[in-house]
Amino acid sequence: MEPFDVVIVGGGPAGSVCAAFCARAGLHTLVLEREKFPREKVCGDCLNPSCWPVLERLSLAQRVRDLPHSKLDSVEFIAIGGRNVIVDLPSGDDCELSVKRSLFDALLLKRAQDLDAHVREETTVRALTHNGNWKIETAGGENFSARILVGADGRNSTVAHLCNLLPRPARERVALQAHIPLPQNFGSRIVLQFLPEGYSGQAPVNETELNLCLVGTPPTISRLRRWAEDHFEITADQSWRTITPLTRSPVPCAHQNLFFIGDAARVVEPFTGEGIYYAMRSGELAAIAISKIMRGEDQQATLREFARACAETYRGRLWINRLARMAVLWPRVGSLFIRAAQIQPAIISLLTRKIVSPAWLY
Ligand SMILES: Cc1cc2nc3c(=O)[nH]c(=O)nc-3n(C[C@H](O)[C@H](O)[C@H](O)COP(=O)(O)OP(=O)(O)OC[C@H]3O[C@@H](n4cnc5c(N)ncnc54)[C@H](O)[C@@H]3O)c2cc1C
Fold first, then answer.
1. Which residue has the least CA distance to atom 16 on ligand 1?
2. CA nearest 206: which of 179, 231, 175?
């Protein structure tokens, strides 16, 4: 079989966006995705406003706004014990909104397909060899060949694992997520609530459903789940999705004929709700670099430029991520911070604005 120019493992936001831009640049592109779409995913379902410019460049912004969604107008931070601080979010067309990942991810993958990327769902990559070209073996026994390989297969990246690049998780935490009936009068807010065992994130995703996330450690997660059952009056047979780890060291994103994008490259703290943006933007940057390499431009210079552009995307935001991670690893410290913010609200408004920045910056 003729080799593909690029094979992308994973059809989440990183992989689909990379595939869409590669295909639009005329590259023979294949996405291999383990699941059958539409599928849900452990996520808060919130789209940071910085996503809009990438969606505009894919002519998808209006189609995302046409999906069932909720416009989010504020974040309420709640400390252990119930004290709270509310921070307004930007309004207008480019506001923060929440949309179920089943709908959002399927739209992105369909866009890649419409731009002529080939997509194979229910296809799990399980072995790789590199011998000039990449040979990619799947669990179903099919083989594919590619000049360039992209790992877009999330935080537990098989591609990184098979290339001996996957770091150990730094500190194991676990997340649970469910869509539950929307409580009456919940409003259009995101709730970020510290609890003695961890934290909970809540956001409406349409007129009838609430996205509920719980983040704790293996010993505390069942207590958090019982808290959620009481607090939201949900039954013990509610089904939950789960994921771990929530923290690990980054995988270098640029290698000879091999790229890592999205969570496969770097896992950010879910508390700040920015992972989808980083996934999409790194997918776009990888597509630009891959197109240059396929046109015969200097590979080393292009890889350096890609790595620099990825680092630039995170610059100025990683310290907030570390701060958020500290607050959630020690929820009592996070709660103290909220109490301080009640006295001096400018601190928390500033931090929130830094995370939820106007779209024109990107
Ligand atoms: C609790 C929690 C809440 C979060 N809330 C938010 C939020 O509100 N907003 C936000 O922006 N971010 C949030 N995030 C982060 C966000 O979910 C991720 O950053 C984002 O999904 C990364 O996209 P991705 O495309 O890199 O990876 P993924 O979305 O994980 O996609 C990877 C894809 O690869 C496929 N795959 C995996 N292995 C293989 C294989 N071997 N072969 C083929 N396919 C494979 C998977 O099926 C999957 O479809 C949250 C994360 C957590 C854990």
1. 275
2. 179
Kindly indicate the confidence band of residue 170, based on its pLDDT and cuts at 50, 70 and 90: low
Residue 355 has pLDDT above 90, yes or no: no
d(CA 284, CA 175): 28
Lowest-pLDDT range of 72-76, 123-127, 220-224, 327-331: 327-331
| Predicted pLDDT at 328 | 72
Distance 36 CA to ligand 1 centre (A): 15
Q: How many CB atoms lie within 10 A of CB 49?
A: 23
- Answer yes or no: is the C-beta of 279 below 6 A from any ligand 1 atom: yes
Does ligand 1 lie within 6 Å of residue 320's CB atom?
A: no
Instruction: Tell me how many degrees the CA angle 47-176-212 measures, rounded to the nearest 5.
Output: 50
Q: How many helices (H) and strands (E) does the chain have?
A: 11, 18
CATH number belonging to the domain at 4-41+101-170+247-318, selected among 3.90.1570.10, 3.40.50.80, 3.50.50.60, 3.40.50.720: 3.50.50.60
* 269 touches ligand 1 (CB under 6 Å): no
DSSP states of 115-174: TT-EEE-S--EEEEEEESEEEEEETTS-EEEEEEEEE-S-TT-HHHHHTT--PPBSS--E
Q: In this model, does residue 112 exceed pLDDT 70?
A: yes
CB 7 less than 6 A from any atom of ligand 1: no
Say if residue 362's pLDDT is above 60.
Answer: no
